[in-house]
Design brief:
single chain; alpha/beta; six-stranded parallel β-sheet; 27 helices
């Protein structure tokens, strides 16, 4: 557009309106709404000046640190999570909001643009830059009414003149709008390609009160932080709260927080529980401080003095870093959320407390009602300190109730973790951008933290309650054998002498489980290091096979491990093999073949051929035109069987073994992989030969994914097909959210892996089997990544 007066900026009345073809989403049918026409500040947009071959850009318009407010923190946390998981898929950039009252200093860390919400020309310039940059695929506008209240006309003109898709994230949704509010919100919803809200209640209000189409609204709950393993006793000592019972609340202070409700309740509480301390965490809200100074904090301090609560109330007047905040929440016995605003749509502080496993007492905001129903917490009326006091006393009198509420709340909020929030946002971005964004899940660094938590001086514990090791669960040969394999694989890349002690520990455990008179390994050991009766009631062939696999891996590492270690493994293999060759369990034979193959000893060649022939006979017996498998059903740990046949071929050069390996493995892959996902065979319903059906959802185990990845690595190394490499990456993404729930199975905060993917939830316990399974898969993917990079460099 040509400016008739180049000495003046283009005014609002001079903007040329240009019709733009309606962008439609698969999730928003075009025939359900009149096409929305946006105007453009430029016609046509200038040629894209962004570098070629750059990743698509998502621009977030929001307050941003160092601004101290909830939306700034929310946006930074979301962007951090998106970058950690999808940095190879798209780039996140920021336009930071400022006002004339609180200007931002330059340079602003983390922000590419800034927008002064009081200046009309800032809106025009920003729209010009956005429309000019073809690499920007999408705008995400974090909306709170106060952010644009002084410049609503400028803001509306801005978003109406953007020619890119817009996602509005509504942090507040007010019911029963007046005519002005209804018009204001409807202007945004019409301009939006999609609207994100954080609760089902907010979605309901938009549909009922604002008449927004349901398909245009996405509910993505407020993100929450995953907690690493923390020692509560040590933290209480660190914060000088040893022996105290902790009540807490946090957030930027203002009168709407109604913290005086708790202060008025405290005298009744401390009379019965004199060790109670109430922590008020957070500094005064910047906007409150501008207009009121510290009047509210001073009022609270006055109440504390008046009620003589100085020994029971502690103000922490800081905008706490997230690590410190999570530590305070970890030592909290009851979290108190009070508010004066019945229409508060969502609270990040409430979300963080629930996800930290705090029992919660809350006033009746819609977010709390959704989360705390079904005895997951206690709801009280607004400003009713008597109810609050009675509720706190009831919970302090019942450790069982507190533990139940904490556990229930933790499980409900797990789906809202920032990694899960990032996954849901990334999928939405991909849908809006019509596949211009291809999601690639990042490969995280190796993290042994949870494995170390599960390991005692005797061996690897079997189970965990959430991330807390369950010492009463005892130990198994299975888990320690898998741990030995994983640590050997890890040691090959690190050559860290400290890892030798861990390898020795798990090797010693396997030796402990060898029972020479019976000619087999036992599997179950209790917390007192005694073998349990379960060993004599179950078939332990699979466990024995796994032990031999682990021993074979150790025996193969004569160039890297001390001979004292490899010789123990070889001796145990030679001792056990004569007794174990007669095993007939399909997977036990497969594990045994893998172990013998790893050991690379000529004396094992005949045993490998004998075992593989037995598997080949099973395969030929079951095989039909449509069923290429060794058994009459596909059950658990399937991939290890064709992998073992490939190992047998590599050891013996027997072509029928090779053919069976390829045929059976491709049959398995065709069953597992479709829709760019691995669809793990559910333990809720195996796939039967004579009634072949679609797999069930849920009952999906990490070990099945890990075994599939290990097999894909073996086939890739043998046949160099890129399809194996691609499928390994797809399978690994199951751990990181590419599954039917779009939720993480690997916990990056602990380094542990959740115990399974069910139909509607994730099993949040992080036991040994699942954690080792992820570690094996991750180590394999790191190996494959290095090999692929080396191959690319050589070409």
């Amino acid at each position: 557009m040509k400016n008739p007066n180049p000495n003046k900026p283009i005014g609002l009345s001079q903007i040329v309106t240009v019709k733009k073809q309606q962008m439609t989403l698969a999730l928003i049918p075009a025939n359900q709404e009149e096409p929305y026409v946006k105007s453009s500040l430029l016609l046509p947009p200038l040629l894209d000046s962004s570098p070629k071959n750059t990743l698509p850009e998502i621009l977030f318009i929001s307050t941003f640190p160092p601004t101290e407010c909830g939306i700034a923190t929310y946006t930074k946390d979301l962007i951090d999570a998106l970058r950690k998981q999808f940095s190879n898929s798209f780039q996140c950039t920021v336009c930071a909001l400022e006002s004339s009252l609180e200007p931002l200093h330059q340079p602003l860390p983390g922000a590419k643009y800034k927008l002064n919400t009081h200046k009309q020309n800032d809106y025009l310039k920003l729209a010009f830059k956005i429309n000019e940059n073809a690499n920007i695929q999408l705008l995400v506008i974090q909306h709170e009414f106060g952010l644009f209240s002084q410049s609503e006309e400028y803001f509306q003109t801005f978003y109406n003149n953007i020619i890119k898709p817009i996602v509005f994230v509504f942090h507040t949704v007010l019911p029963s709008p007046n005519e002005t509010l209804l018009k204001q919100v409807n202007n945004m919803t019409r301009a939006a390609t999609s609207i994100v809200v954080m609760t089902e209640n907010a979605k309901h209000i938009l549909i009922q009160d604002y008449h927004v189409r349901p398909l245009k609204i996405q509910v993505i709950p407020h993100g929450t932080h995953l907690l690493p393993f923390l020692n509560k006793t040590q933290l209480k000592t660190q914060y000088k709260l040893t022996g105290k019972t902790i009540l807490s609340t946090f957030g930027l202070l203002g009168s709407s927080k109604s913290i005086e409700t708790t202060l008025y309740a405290l005298p009744q509480i401390v009379q019965l529980f004199p060790k109670v301390v109430f922590l008020i965490l957070g500094k005064t809200h910047p906007n409150v401080r501008i207009h009121e100074g510290e009047a509210y904090r001073n009022k609270l301090q006055h109440i504390v003095n008046e009620l003589q609560l100085q020994n029971h109330v502690r103000f922490v007047n800081e905008y706490l870093p997230i690590n410190n905040l999570l530590e305070y929440l970890n030592i909290t016995d009851i979290y108190l959320f009070t508010s004066k605003d019945p229409n508060q749509a969502v609270s990040g502080t409430f979300s963080y407390a629930a996800s930290s496993g705090c029992p919660i007492i809350s006033t009746r905001i819609p977010h709390a009602v959704e989360v705390l129903g079904h005895n997951n917490g206690i709801i009280i009326d607004f400003e009713d300190y008597q109810q609050l006091a009675q509720s706190v006393i009831a919970l302090l009198n019942s450790a069982t109730k507190r533990e139940t509420m904490a556990s229930n709340g933790f499980q409900i909020m797990a789906a809202t973790s920032w990694p899960n929030s990032a996954i849901k946002h990334a999928i939405l971005f991909q849908q809006i951008c019509n596949k211009k964004i291809q999601l690639q899940y990042n490969l995280p660094p190796i993290n042994l933290s949870h494995l170390q938590q599960l390991t005692t001086s005797f061996g690897l514990l079997q189970f965990s309650k959430f991330s807390n090791p369950d010492k009463a669960s005892g130990y198994t040969l299975d888990d320690n054998a898998r741990a030995l394999i994983a640590l050997c694989k890890y040691y090959q890349t690190t050559r860290n002498p400290k890892d030798l002690a861990r390898i020795q520990l798990h090797l010693d455990f396997i030796a402990f489980c060898w029972q020479n008179p019976q000619g087999r390994f036992l599997n179950y050991v209790n917390s007192d290091h005694q073998f349990t009766q379960q060993n004599f009631e179950e078939n332990l062939e699979d466990s024995n096979g796994r032990a031999m696999w682990a021993l074979g891996v150790v025996a193969s590492m004569t160039q890297t491990l001390p001979l004292a270690i490899t010789n123990i493994a070889k001796s145990l293999m030679d001792l056990a093999l004569p007794h174990l060759k007669s095993m007939h369990s399909t997977r036990a034979m497969a594990f045994l073949i893998k172990g013998l193959y790893h050991a690379k000893a000529n004396r094992y060649k005949d045993s490998i051929g004998e075992l593989a022939q037995r598997l080949a006979n099973m395969y030929n017996h079951e095989k039909t035109l449509s069923w290429h498998w060794f058994e009459d059903s596909l059950t658990y740990g399937n991939a290890v069987i064709p992998e073992s046949m490939l190992c047998a071929y590599l050891a013996t050069n027997n072509m029928p073994f090779r053919n069976i390996a390829l045929e059976s493995f491709h049959f398995l892959l065709e069953t597992l992989f479709f829709d760019n996902k691995i669809n793990v065979i559910s333990n809720q319903g195996w796939l039967k030969k004579d009634a072949f059906q679609e797999s069930h959802k849920g009952g999906e185990q990490p070990i099945d994914v890990a075994y599939t990845i290990l097999a894909l690595e073996r086939f890739y190394e043998t046949f160099a097909s890129q399809d194996y490499l691609k499928k390994a990456s797809t399978a690994f993404s199951w751990f990181h959210g590419n599954n039917h729930l779009h939720q993480i199975i690997y916990n990056p905060a602990t380094g542990g892996c959740y115990d399974g993917l069910e139909l509607e939830n994730v099993n949040l316990n992080q036991g040994a089997e699942s954690t080792i399974s992820y570690l094996l898969a991750s180590l394999t993917m790191h190996d494959l990544s290095r090999k692929a990079q080396a191959l690319q460099s050589s070409n």
